[in-house]
Design goal:
2 copies of one chain form a homodimer. By secondary structure, chain A is α/β, with parallel strands linked by helices. The first copy, chain A, is about 35% helix and about 25% strand. The first copy, chain A, is built from 11 helices and 13 strands. In chain A, helix 6 crosses helix 7.
């Protein structure tokens, strides 16, 4: 089983209280793909510029991620620069250069079209819909969005949502999209727009998953050392979807516990992401490390 | 086994987006006592004025709470008035009239001095210490504090903390007291000041408990209807302590699961408190309702 992700591949410059990096490979599709790569075969659809060199491609190859759908065009790669507040709970964007991303038109290689699982990163909802149209009867369509599209392309986003089974967004996006501050109400409103499952990421307050007759919540792992929160949410998405895909052929793949375990694997990958700058931690994990952290979540939350 | 709580008994006026109440019995010791009363025998030490009538005392009596330590003096009862923001995550104090509380000097009735479990509400740390001195070798001393004392009476608070086994505070208080934003670090700093257990309440983000080699976190129950957040934290404390006291003679009273269950019962009582205005919900609960909600927390958090 394989998983297709479409979204941004970028260079990031990041400053946090723990240090700074002037230029490193980033982008939401990158974090997602690397996190998911520990669970399943991942294909990336995105665009990079001429400055995206062989060594940068290696970030994907080292994790066995297929980059055939990563188009390389003339111009420069999407660049984002940001600075985190002392408590790391807020960040300020210092610079955004869309570059080749400004004219991105996702084109799926022919053999990508039958990928059973699709994740639509938080790109323009019109591009999300274009990808949906290029796919041949996917088994599950999941996605993300962001405040910029919720405010600026609401109608187009609602079209995309109608054909989405699962939405993974953060709490402020859920509030903006639904018009409800209360997250239980927000999830109910969003589910009425299409997705049967809404996963709400709450940063260092954990995550909650809302389904028809089910709510599941997990707190965040209380980490003493957070180096760089960039990509934590995308890594959550990658862990969540990666687990879903890798276990989707098992008997209880629609069961309650199946989706709950996916939330935990999402939380696991998010917690790894923030421990080092950029992709550093996500590039060099092992399955035993991932399983050990899964057990940490069990220890953190279990009571009899 | 019985539990002594010292703290404020007040009249509250509260406005929330769900409605308003002009005058009702409140105060942190009141919420604490009522929540704890479902688990154990509770004794209240506090002060009220002449306006605190027989019908107001009935709030305690109906729940079997002993008010022999609730001194009645000439003057008016402590009055607090506040208004919650539309999302209920912030509140603004409209009026505070300390009245008889301004000169409160807790005096324990003779037979209260050997109460095995003590909870020091968030009063002046000098008064907390005075209560500690009046007690005869309590089995466990727990307490709370608030930003006003952390900033204004730091040295006195540190004296109180040295003789406290368990501190139950909210996240902003933990950050201010420790000088650390990160809650895992904050708990470590606070534990070094005295308490072996630090429970950090995070409002609608749940609660975390830090012990020597243990962390336990529970998310909040996603409630769609919140009428009045007043007293939720105090009700958490009452549920937590009430459970500890009622089960302290059992074999595994020092075990890991014992304290974890206390956090859940605290969360249960906090979740009930916010469902109605003031004490309304806490006055008329039943043990089956409490146990059913305990099971809701299990359903919310359990994965295999």
């Amino acid at each position: 089983m394989s998983l297709l992700v479409v979204g941004s591949v970028a260079f990031d410059a990041v400053r946090t209280p723990q240090g700074s990096v002037e230029r490193m490979v980033g982008g939401s599709a990158t974090y997602f793909a690397l996190a998911a790569s520990y669970f399943t075969q991942v294909r990336v659809v995105g665009v990079v510029g001429e400055d995206f060199e062989e060594k940068h491609h290696q970030v994907f190859r080292d994790r066995g991620v297929c980059t055939e759908g990563l188009e390389r065009v003339s111009g420069k790669t999407f660049f984002w620069s940001g600075e985190y507040s002392p408590d790391m709970n807020d960040r300020r964007t210092l610079d955004t250069q869309l570059n080749v991303f400004a004219t991105f038109q996702p084109k799926l290689p022919a053999h990508y079209r039958q990928t059973p699982f699709l994740f639509l990163g938080n790109i323009d909802p019109e591009l999300q819909s274009s990808v949906q149209r290029q796919m041949v009867s996917p088994q599950l369509v999941a996605g993300d969005t962001m405040n910029f599209w919720i405010e600026g392309k609401r109608a187009e986003l609602e079209v995309t949502l109608r054909n989405m089974n699962l939405l993974i967004i953060n709490d402020s996006e859920a509030r903006l999209l639904s018009g409800e501050y209360n997250l239980a109400k927000a999830a109910r409103v969003i589910r009425a727009l299409g997705p049967h499952t809404v996963v709400i990421k709450r940063g260092d307050n954990g995550a909650s998953m809302f389904q028809e007759d089910e709510v599941f919540s997990v707190p965040a792992l209380p980490l003493e050392e957070v180096h760089d929160p960039t990509g934590a949410g995308d890594s959550f998405g990658g862990g969540f979807m990666g687990y879903l895909v890798s276990h989707s052929t098992e008997g209880n793949s629609t069961g309650r516990n199946f989706f709950r375990r996916a939330v935990i694997y999402g939380s696991v990958m998010g917690s790894f992401a923030v421990e080092r700058f950029g992709l550093e931690r996500l590039r060099h994990l092992s399955r035993p490390e991932i399983e050990a952290r899964f057990e940490e979540f069990r220890k953190l939350t279990r009571f009899e």
